[in-house]
UniProtKB/TrEMBL annotation:
Native source organism of the sequence: Roseiconus lacunae
Group of enzyme by EC: transferase
Stored Gene3D superfamilies: Phosphorylase Kinase, domain 1 (3.30.200.20), Tetratricopeptide repeat domain (1.25.40.10), Transferase(Phosphotransferase) domain 1 (1.10.510.10)
UniProt EC number: 2.7.11.1
One MF term in the entry's GO annotations: protein serine/threonine kinase activity
PANTHER family per the UniProt record, alphabetical: MITOGEN-ACTIVATED PROTEIN KINASE KINASE KINASE 20-RELATED (PTHR43289), SERINE_THREONINE-PROTEIN KINASE YBDM-RELATED (PTHR43289:SF34)
Signal peptide positions (record): none
Domain of life, source organism: Bacteria
Name by which UniProt lists this protein: Serine/threonine-protein kinase
Keywords: ATP-binding, Kinase, Membrane, Nucleotide-binding, Transferase, Transmembrane, Transmembrane helix
Tagged with keyword Nucleotide-binding: yes
Sequence intervals crossing the membrane: 337-355
Domain Protein kinase: 10-271
């Protein structure tokens, strides 16, 4: 850019895993005192009036999109030859950083990320929006669930777009219909199907630590994307469940028609992966369920089939010689009675799901999710059953309980995000975070009394400001924890005081060596404890007096 102001925004520092090549900046809205992420685009001569109007229409539509798994767009503007979009600032590690640091993710973590992103894609696609860039560095893991950032409606067709040429990594993630030689990636070619392919590439990379397609040049990778079938994730990472492996390979199908029909279908399949994995169903059972004897073509395969399935295989030669007695080879799950019964069961299930849950059911759902105590489970508890209790049963005691749980979840999320910021030396965005950071510094040094004073002052100073409600609740939460710790320290003070009294008794009896040993042990054990410092100073002073005698 570089500049210090952009419309109403004061520019601070670059964001992204690679700031030197990033076009995203951390900024503060001067009037609202709110931190945002702003993406800046350069266009020759500022773009035509028609292009500027199209860009303005785009950000107005983006402002209407709202989902917990998506970073909100607050709008945009123009400044000289630059245009910009302002987004909700999501601070934390990107998925790319996590994969790079660990080499790969466990399949359980990849599944957790996948479920959150699938829900975000389900919402986007329901709004007729395709993201077009489902890549690890556009997924920020902060709080309880991953968040997809950088929403665009016209990612490739607008003159206000990133001008960097596509990298090998980006092309290897693109669907074949976008990465074909000679295809530049027009906006109208970005579809839900191409998003799902990129989502499959994301899951593949997360689980295996490698891209599904490899190559040394853009041309080589583009050609490979069209025809090369990736090695299955389960063959690289043996712990990967067969059901997860099958879904990822289906997402990476070359023909869009062969991919899952929608993000909703993917979300349901991911839920089924979790269910089956938790049930510990045998892999051989699911592999063999799709085994068709008519696919056996030689004696070796027949023997293998008998070994795997434990039964004789149809003799293909006999079938070929007797055309009048061809057996019905339709597997049981393709029989009409099963399909009709399955359809009826699905209709009953849909009716059950569509029926609003009762107050008791919502409470039970929330309790079960809270008991799981993972980031995604707590986020799900807050966004659905707890919110439903408050909206649908506002006068019920359960509504009050639900609000208490939401406040607790918000506190846990606030403290987690602050921990991430402090650990990664990220900017502190407001007074609440700054005071918490200062209090935690005392806490980490063992000075609980000073930390409690800091937290109490925060409650006094910010307690009436609705903007800092979560920070104040977090301060009260920390005060309760530290008071409990201080109670334990009071027992330690009693112990130290009793030992000092014992040393004084030894000294009065002339048993100087025993007294000195007590003082030495107290200094050795508690010399670094700031809460016990006055008592330890007494021991040190008496030691010094005896050494001078």
């Amino acid at each position: 850019m570089p500049r210090s102001r952009l419309g109403p925004l004061a520019i601070e520092s670059k964001l992204g895993d690679h700031p030197s090549t990033s076009s995203v900046w951390r900024a503060i809205h001067v009037q609202q005192k709110k931190a945002v992420a702003v993406k800046v685009f350069s266009a020759p001569f500022g773009g035509t009036p028609e292009a500027r109007q199209a860009f303005a229409d785009e950000w107005e539509r983006l402002k209407l999109l709202s989902h917990p798994g998506l970073a909100r767009c607050y709008g945009g503007g123009f400044e000289d030859a630059d245009a910009y979009l302002a987004y909700e600032l999501i601070e934390g590690e990107t998925l790319a950083t996590q994969i790079e640091r660990n080499g790969r993710l466990s399949w359980e973590n990849a599944l957790e990320v996948g479920q959150a992103i699938a829900e975000a894609l389900e919402y986007l696609h329901s709004q007729n929006v395709s993201h077009g860039a489902i890549v690890p560095d556009k997924i920020v893991v902060a709080g309880f669930a991953p968040v997809l950032v950088d929403l665009r409606l016209d990612r490739f067709g607008s003159p206000f777009r990133t001008s960097r040429p596509p990298s090998l990594d980006l092309v290897a993630r693109q669907a074949p219909e976008l990465a074909a030689p000679g295809v530049a990636g027009a906006a109208d070619q970005c579809t839900p199907a191409s998003d799902l392919y990129a989502f499959g590439a994301l899951l593949y990379h997360a689980i295996t630590g490698r891209l599904p397609i490899q190559g040394d040049s853009i041309e080589q990778v583009r050609a490979a994307v069209q025809s090369e079938i990736p090695e299955s994730p389960a063959s690289i990472v043996l712990q990967c469940p067969v059901w997860f492996d099958k879904l990822i390979m289906q997402l990476l199908e070359k023909d869009p028609v062969n991919r899952p029909p929608s993000a909703t279908a993917v979300k349901l399949q991911l839920a089924e992966v979790r269910k089956r994995s938790l049930s510990r169903a045998g892999v051989a059972e699911h592999v063999s369920s799709g085994f068709s004897p008519l696919q056996v073509t030689n004696q070796q395969d027949k023997d293998e089939a008998r070994k795997l399935l434990g039964r004789d295989v149809v003799d293909l030669k006999a079938i070929e010689e007797d055309d009048d007695e061809i057996p019905d080879a339709t597997v049981w799950h393709d029989q009409p009675w099963f399909l009709i019964g399955g359809l009826v069961a699905i209709l009953i299930l849909l009716a059950y799901v569509a029926w609003p849950a009762s107050e008791a059911t919502l409470r039970k759902q929330a309790e079960n999710l809270i008991a799981i105590d993972t980031r995604s489970a707590l986020a799900e508890a807050e966004s659905h059953p707890l919110r439903q209790l408050i909206v649908r049963f506002p006068d019920s005691p359960n509504a009050e309980w639900a609000q208490q749980q939401i406040d607790r979840i918000n506190v846990i999320q606030f403290l987690h995000q602050l921990k991430v910021k402090i650990k990664n030396n990220l900017p502190i965005k407001n007074q609440g975070e700054l005071l918490h950071k200062q209090a935690q510094a005392y806490e980490n040094n063992g000075d609980f009394a000073e930390a409690i004073d800091k937290y109490r002052s925060m409650v006094t100073v910010l307690g009436e400001d609705a903007e800092y409600e979560t920070a104040v609740n977090a301060a009260r939460y920390k005060i309760a924890i530290l008071k409990d710790q201080a109670g334990k320290d009071s027992d330690a003070r009693k112990i130290v005081q009793n030992r000092l009294d014992e040393a004084d008794q030894f000294l009065a009896e002339g048993r100087v060596v025993e007294a000195r040993n007590i003082w030495y042990s107290l200094v050795e054990l508690y010399g670094d404890n700031s809460d016990l410092k006055p008592l330890i100073d007494v021991a040190q002073s008496k030691l010094a007096d005896k050494l001078q005698e």
